[in-house]
Amino acid sequence: MNPPMHLLRVAAFTSLALGAFTAAALSQPAPSWPQRTVKFILPLGPGSGADLGARLLAEKLAVRWSQPVVLENRPGGDGFVAIGAFTGAKDDHTLLFGPAASFTAHPYLHEKLPYDPRDLAPVARVSATLIALAVPPSLNVNTLGELVAMARAQPGKLNWASVTGATDLVLEAFFKTAGLEVAKIPYRDPVQAMNDVAEGRLHLYWTSLAIVRAQMQAGRVKVIAIPASEPTSILPGVPTVAQAGFPQLTFDGLVGLYGQRDMPLELRERIAADVKAALADPAIVQRLSATGQVVVPGSAAEFAASIEQQRSGVAELVRVLDIKAAQ
Length: 327
Fold this sequence. Notes:
Shape: globular
Number of strands: 11
Strand order of the largest sheet: 2-1-3-10-4-11
Number of helices: 12
Strand content: 15-25%
Protein backbone atom coordinates (compact mmCIF):
# COMPACT_ATOMS: atom_id res chain seq x y z
CA MET A 1 0.00 0.00 0.00
CA ASN A 2 1.39 3.41 -0.90
CA PRO A 3 1.69 5.92 2.01
CA PRO A 4 -0.67 8.92 2.02
CA MET A 5 0.58 12.00 0.17
CA HIS A 6 0.77 14.11 3.35
CA LEU A 7 3.12 11.57 4.94
CA LEU A 8 5.34 11.66 1.87
CA ARG A 9 5.49 15.45 2.16
CA VAL A 10 6.40 15.22 5.86
CA ALA A 11 9.10 12.65 5.14
CA ALA A 12 10.54 14.75 2.30
CA PHE A 13 10.55 17.89 4.45
CA THR A 14 12.17 16.01 7.34
CA SER A 15 14.86 14.64 5.02
CA LEU A 16 15.60 18.09 3.62
CA ALA A 17 15.70 19.61 7.10
CA LEU A 18 18.06 16.96 8.37
CA GLY A 19 20.26 17.41 5.31
CA ALA A 20 20.37 21.18 5.80
CA PHE A 21 21.13 20.75 9.51
CA THR A 22 23.94 18.27 8.77
CA ALA A 23 25.47 20.54 6.10
CA ALA A 24 25.29 23.53 8.43
CA ALA A 25 26.86 21.54 11.25
CA LEU A 26 29.70 20.36 9.04
CA SER A 27 30.36 23.90 7.86
CA GLN A 28 30.71 25.24 11.41
CA PRO A 29 33.97 24.88 13.35
CA ALA A 30 34.00 23.54 16.87
CA PRO A 31 33.24 26.51 19.14
CA SER A 32 36.21 25.79 21.39
CA TRP A 33 38.85 24.94 18.79
CA PRO A 34 41.52 23.86 19.54
CA GLN A 35 40.40 21.14 21.91
CA ARG A 36 43.76 19.34 22.04
CA THR A 37 47.36 19.58 20.84
CA VAL A 38 47.82 21.28 17.47
CA LYS A 39 50.51 19.90 15.16
CA PHE A 40 52.43 21.77 12.45
CA ILE A 41 53.94 19.46 9.83
CA LEU A 42 56.86 21.00 7.92
CA PRO A 43 58.36 19.80 4.61
CA LEU A 44 61.75 21.22 5.67
CA GLY A 45 64.27 20.17 8.27
CA PRO A 46 65.32 22.01 11.44
CA GLY A 47 67.24 25.23 10.88
CA SER A 48 65.47 26.38 7.73
CA GLY A 49 63.82 29.80 7.69
CA ALA A 50 60.34 28.29 7.72
CA ASP A 51 61.26 25.97 10.59
CA LEU A 52 62.58 28.80 12.76
CA GLY A 53 59.51 30.90 12.00
CA ALA A 54 57.18 28.01 12.78
CA ARG A 55 58.79 27.46 16.18
CA LEU A 56 58.44 31.11 17.17
CA LEU A 57 54.83 31.23 16.01
CA ALA A 58 53.97 27.93 17.70
CA GLU A 59 55.30 29.30 20.98
CA LYS A 60 53.01 32.33 20.78
CA LEU A 61 49.96 30.40 19.61
CA ALA A 62 50.31 27.79 22.36
CA VAL A 63 49.85 30.56 24.91
CA ARG A 64 46.97 32.09 22.98
CA TRP A 65 45.18 28.76 22.45
CA SER A 66 45.96 27.25 25.87
CA GLN A 67 46.96 24.09 24.04
CA PRO A 68 50.38 22.74 23.06
CA VAL A 69 51.52 23.43 19.50
CA VAL A 70 54.13 20.92 18.35
CA LEU A 71 56.25 20.72 15.22
CA GLU A 72 56.96 17.65 13.14
CA ASN A 73 59.72 18.03 10.55
CA ARG A 74 59.14 15.69 7.61
CA PRO A 75 61.71 16.67 4.96
CA GLY A 76 62.34 14.66 1.82
CA GLY A 77 60.58 13.62 -1.34
CA ASP A 78 60.25 17.21 -2.57
CA GLY A 79 57.64 17.85 0.11
CA PHE A 80 55.62 14.71 -0.62
CA VAL A 81 56.58 13.10 2.70
CA ALA A 82 55.17 16.03 4.67
CA ILE A 83 52.08 16.37 2.47
CA GLY A 84 51.35 12.66 2.82
CA ALA A 85 51.61 12.88 6.60
CA PHE A 86 49.36 15.95 6.59
CA THR A 87 46.62 14.66 4.30
CA GLY A 88 46.75 11.24 5.94
CA ALA A 89 46.03 12.75 9.34
CA LYS A 90 42.50 13.81 8.29
CA ASP A 91 42.43 16.00 11.37
CA ASP A 92 41.59 19.69 11.78
CA HIS A 93 44.22 19.93 14.53
CA THR A 94 47.00 19.02 12.08
CA LEU A 95 48.20 21.84 9.83
CA LEU A 96 50.84 22.03 7.12
CA PHE A 97 53.36 24.85 7.56
CA GLY A 98 55.73 25.74 4.78
CA PRO A 99 56.72 27.75 1.73
CA ALA A 100 54.21 27.91 -1.10
CA ALA A 101 57.09 27.57 -3.59
CA SER A 102 57.47 23.94 -2.50
CA PHE A 103 53.98 23.17 -3.80
CA THR A 104 53.14 25.60 -6.62
CA ALA A 105 55.77 24.02 -8.86
CA HIS A 106 54.87 20.39 -8.13
CA PRO A 107 52.60 19.94 -11.18
CA TYR A 108 55.51 20.92 -13.44
CA LEU A 109 58.33 19.07 -11.70
CA HIS A 110 56.64 15.65 -11.47
CA GLU A 111 54.79 13.54 -14.00
CA LYS A 112 52.23 12.47 -11.41
CA LEU A 113 51.31 13.90 -8.03
CA PRO A 114 50.53 11.68 -5.03
CA TYR A 115 48.05 14.28 -3.79
CA ASP A 116 45.41 16.66 -5.12
CA PRO A 117 46.52 20.32 -4.83
CA ARG A 118 43.00 21.07 -3.61
CA ASP A 119 43.85 19.06 -0.49
CA LEU A 120 45.89 22.06 0.71
CA ALA A 121 43.41 24.69 1.87
CA PRO A 122 45.07 28.07 2.58
CA VAL A 123 44.63 29.05 6.23
CA ALA A 124 46.95 31.95 7.01
CA ARG A 125 49.80 33.83 5.37
CA VAL A 126 52.64 34.15 7.86
CA SER A 127 55.80 35.55 6.34
CA ALA A 128 57.99 36.06 3.32
CA THR A 129 61.26 34.17 3.53
CA LEU A 130 64.24 36.25 2.54
CA ILE A 131 66.16 34.37 -0.12
CA ALA A 132 69.85 34.97 -0.74
CA LEU A 133 72.00 34.43 -3.80
CA ALA A 134 75.23 33.21 -2.23
CA VAL A 135 78.62 32.71 -3.86
CA PRO A 136 82.05 31.67 -2.53
CA PRO A 137 84.50 34.52 -1.88
CA SER A 138 87.09 32.54 -3.87
CA LEU A 139 85.01 33.11 -7.02
CA ASN A 140 86.05 36.78 -6.89
CA VAL A 141 82.70 38.22 -7.97
CA ASN A 142 81.00 41.02 -6.07
CA THR A 143 77.82 41.53 -8.07
CA LEU A 144 75.23 39.49 -9.91
CA GLY A 145 76.31 41.20 -13.12
CA GLU A 146 79.87 40.00 -12.62
CA LEU A 147 78.64 36.44 -12.01
CA VAL A 148 76.55 36.47 -15.19
CA ALA A 149 79.50 37.85 -17.16
CA MET A 150 81.72 35.05 -15.81
CA ALA A 151 79.14 32.41 -16.73
CA ARG A 152 78.91 33.84 -20.23
CA ALA A 153 82.68 33.91 -20.65
CA GLN A 154 83.13 30.38 -19.29
CA PRO A 155 80.22 28.26 -20.54
CA GLY A 156 79.75 25.04 -18.60
CA LYS A 157 82.36 25.92 -15.95
CA LEU A 158 80.04 27.21 -13.22
CA ASN A 159 77.35 25.36 -11.28
CA TRP A 160 74.34 26.20 -9.13
CA ALA A 161 71.87 24.74 -6.65
CA SER A 162 68.67 25.84 -4.98
CA VAL A 163 65.98 24.57 -2.69
CA THR A 164 63.55 22.50 -4.72
CA GLY A 165 60.33 24.00 -5.98
CA ALA A 166 59.52 27.15 -7.90
CA THR A 167 62.97 28.60 -7.24
CA ASP A 168 64.49 25.91 -9.45
CA LEU A 169 62.27 27.08 -12.27
CA VAL A 170 63.19 30.75 -11.75
CA LEU A 171 66.90 30.06 -12.25
CA GLU A 172 66.42 27.52 -15.04
CA ALA A 173 64.23 29.95 -17.00
CA PHE A 174 66.74 32.74 -16.45
CA PHE A 175 69.70 30.66 -17.66
CA LYS A 176 67.74 29.52 -20.71
CA THR A 177 66.59 32.98 -21.78
CA ALA A 178 70.07 34.42 -21.12
CA GLY A 179 71.71 31.61 -23.08
CA LEU A 180 73.95 30.60 -20.17
CA GLU A 181 75.37 27.12 -19.62
CA VAL A 182 75.44 26.58 -15.85
CA ALA A 183 75.24 23.07 -14.40
CA LYS A 184 72.64 22.26 -11.76
CA ILE A 185 73.84 20.27 -8.73
CA PRO A 186 71.15 18.43 -6.74
CA TYR A 187 71.44 18.39 -2.94
CA ARG A 188 69.38 16.63 -0.30
CA ASP A 189 71.14 18.40 2.56
CA PRO A 190 71.16 22.24 2.50
CA VAL A 191 73.96 22.29 5.08
CA GLN A 192 76.21 20.29 2.75
CA ALA A 193 75.38 22.67 -0.08
CA MET A 194 76.28 25.61 2.14
CA ASN A 195 79.60 23.97 3.05
CA ASP A 196 80.34 23.42 -0.63
CA VAL A 197 79.76 27.11 -1.32
CA ALA A 198 82.17 28.02 1.47
CA GLU A 199 84.76 25.63 0.03
CA GLY A 200 84.30 26.95 -3.50
CA ARG A 201 82.87 23.73 -4.94
CA LEU A 202 79.41 25.25 -5.47
CA HIS A 203 79.38 28.58 -7.30
CA LEU A 204 75.83 29.87 -6.82
CA TYR A 205 73.35 28.85 -4.15
CA TRP A 206 69.80 30.17 -4.03
CA THR A 207 68.50 29.45 -0.54
CA SER A 208 66.96 31.05 2.54
CA LEU A 209 68.94 33.67 4.42
CA ALA A 210 68.51 31.57 7.57
CA ILE A 211 70.75 28.89 6.06
CA VAL A 212 73.28 31.40 4.72
CA ARG A 213 73.52 33.85 7.60
CA ALA A 214 76.07 32.10 9.85
CA GLN A 215 78.51 31.42 7.01
CA MET A 216 77.97 34.94 5.66
CA GLN A 217 78.73 36.52 9.04
CA ALA A 218 81.84 34.36 9.29
CA GLY A 219 83.00 35.66 5.91
CA ARG A 220 82.93 32.19 4.35
CA VAL A 221 80.23 33.04 1.77
CA LYS A 222 79.16 36.23 0.06
CA VAL A 223 75.56 37.30 -0.62
CA ILE A 224 75.50 39.30 -3.86
CA ALA A 225 71.74 39.87 -4.27
CA ILE A 226 68.30 38.98 -2.97
CA PRO A 227 65.40 38.06 -5.29
CA ALA A 228 62.85 39.90 -3.13
CA SER A 229 60.76 42.56 -4.83
CA GLU A 230 61.72 45.10 -2.15
CA PRO A 231 65.06 45.81 -0.44
CA THR A 232 65.30 44.99 3.24
CA SER A 233 67.03 46.51 6.24
CA ILE A 234 67.87 42.96 7.34
CA LEU A 235 70.58 42.92 4.66
CA PRO A 236 71.69 46.53 4.30
CA GLY A 237 73.77 47.20 1.21
CA VAL A 238 72.69 44.01 -0.58
CA PRO A 239 70.70 44.91 -3.72
CA THR A 240 67.59 43.21 -4.99
CA VAL A 241 67.99 41.36 -8.28
CA ALA A 242 66.00 44.14 -9.95
CA GLN A 243 68.38 46.76 -8.57
CA ALA A 244 71.24 44.60 -9.88
CA GLY A 245 69.72 44.72 -13.36
CA PHE A 246 68.00 41.32 -13.46
CA PRO A 247 64.30 41.84 -12.57
CA GLN A 248 63.37 38.52 -14.20
CA LEU A 249 64.90 36.79 -11.17
CA THR A 250 62.50 38.50 -8.75
CA PHE A 251 60.78 36.01 -6.50
CA ASP A 252 59.22 36.54 -3.09
CA GLY A 253 59.24 33.68 -0.62
CA LEU A 254 55.74 32.94 0.69
CA VAL A 255 55.20 30.97 3.88
CA GLY A 256 51.96 30.04 5.54
CA LEU A 257 49.63 27.51 7.09
CA TYR A 258 47.42 25.05 5.23
CA GLY A 259 44.48 23.06 6.54
CA GLN A 260 42.52 20.06 5.34
CA ARG A 261 40.40 20.51 2.23
CA ASP A 262 37.13 20.35 4.21
CA MET A 263 38.23 22.74 6.97
CA PRO A 264 35.45 25.36 7.26
CA LEU A 265 36.33 28.84 6.07
CA GLU A 266 35.17 30.28 9.39
CA LEU A 267 37.73 28.18 11.27
CA ARG A 268 40.49 29.02 8.78
CA GLU A 269 39.80 32.72 9.18
CA ARG A 270 39.72 32.36 12.96
CA ILE A 271 43.15 30.72 12.94
CA ALA A 272 44.42 33.43 10.57
CA ALA A 273 43.19 36.12 12.96
CA ASP A 274 45.05 34.45 15.84
CA VAL A 275 48.21 34.21 13.72
CA LYS A 276 47.94 37.90 12.85
CA ALA A 277 47.49 38.81 16.52
CA ALA A 278 50.52 36.71 17.50
CA LEU A 279 52.63 38.35 14.81
CA ALA A 280 51.68 41.83 16.03
CA ASP A 281 54.09 41.38 18.94
CA PRO A 282 57.19 43.51 18.18
CA ALA A 283 59.35 40.97 19.98
CA ILE A 284 58.35 38.14 17.64
CA VAL A 285 58.72 40.41 14.61
CA GLN A 286 62.28 41.18 15.71
CA ARG A 287 63.06 37.51 16.30
CA LEU A 288 61.61 36.50 12.94
CA SER A 289 63.57 39.25 11.21
CA ALA A 290 66.72 37.81 12.75
CA THR A 291 65.93 34.50 11.03
CA GLY A 292 65.45 36.17 7.65
CA GLN A 293 61.65 36.30 7.73
CA VAL A 294 59.63 39.38 6.78
CA VAL A 295 56.33 39.31 8.66
CA VAL A 296 53.38 39.68 6.25
CA PRO A 297 50.36 38.10 7.99
CA GLY A 298 47.24 37.59 5.94
CA SER A 299 43.81 36.02 6.06
CA ALA A 300 42.90 32.74 4.39
CA ALA A 301 41.56 34.69 1.41
CA GLU A 302 44.69 36.85 1.21
CA PHE A 303 46.96 33.82 1.43
CA ALA A 304 44.97 32.10 -1.32
CA ALA A 305 45.34 35.20 -3.52
CA SER A 306 49.10 35.30 -2.89
CA ILE A 307 49.41 31.62 -3.79
CA GLU A 308 47.45 32.16 -6.98
CA GLN A 309 49.74 35.05 -7.92
CA GLN A 310 52.75 32.79 -7.42
CA ARG A 311 51.11 30.03 -9.47
CA SER A 312 50.61 32.48 -12.32
CA GLY A 313 54.30 33.39 -12.19
CA VAL A 314 55.28 29.71 -12.18
CA ALA A 315 53.02 29.09 -15.18
CA GLU A 316 54.93 31.75 -17.12
CA LEU A 317 58.26 30.15 -16.17
CA VAL A 318 57.22 26.71 -17.37
CA ARG A 319 55.98 28.25 -20.61
CA VAL A 320 59.52 29.53 -21.17
CA LEU A 321 60.94 26.11 -20.26
CA ASP A 322 58.28 24.26 -22.32
CA ILE A 323 57.29 22.03 -19.38
CA LYS A 324 53.90 20.34 -19.32
CA ALA A 325 51.77 20.03 -16.20
CA ALA A 326 51.35 16.66 -14.47
CA GLN A 327 48.37 14.58 -15.43
